Amino acid sequence: MDCQTQPVSKGTSRFPDAQALQKMMAARLAPSFAPHEALAEALLPHVLGSSDDGSHDVSHLQRVFKVAMTLCAAENGEAEIVAAAVLLHDCVQVEKNSPLRAEASRLSAEKAGEILAALGWEPARREAATHAILTHSFSANVASETLEAKIVQDADRLDAIGFVGIARCFYTAGRMNSALYDPFDPKAEERELDDLSFALDHFETKLFKLKSGFQTAAGRDMADLRHARMKAFIEYLHEEI
């Protein structure tokens, strides 16, 4: 039988459009957000493809979700609100070096409220999720007033420290065209810290400070271990340079 090229009618494509592709990806990724697969499948299309930042991609959501569910179980938080907040906490992304960086969590909270309203979430539950999104950010510096908000903030900050945090720090420094460290004064003994220019400085300006800010008992326990891992890494790194 001869192979023939079938005509494609006007207005159609052999390839799925961006929206259809996002829905397909959401369906494949949803099981990794068990037991909230249905919620993940509904919310992920609003997040996927919004940024090319590998430190805030879907793997970040998977890690934060996993930790958040662990904290939620330990602290008796309301899991569905935590899950929704985690899935949407970066739905509006702003680059680290943008002057709007401090507004990222507010913008994400506003967009998340619209998304959850469209899904039929009642106002009180929407407010609980958007409050958690608003307050999760270190840059925003807004106090968390609910248990669920504290859980989301702790889970997100745990992904900023430890071995994953180290990897994310240097990845982001590469995106920002920063050097690894100051070759003249790696430990900043005779200069001001400058984490916009040197990745290594970011540990002192921010990452080592995070341990003191965890708000749940379970989060503090996890932070102690991850903080110790970062400290050990920096000690070995200085030996090598």
Automatic annotation (TrEMBL):
Protein name: HD domain-containing protein
CDD domains reported in the protein's UniProt record: HDc (cd00077)
Signal peptide start-end: none
Positions of the HD/PDEase domain: 53-170
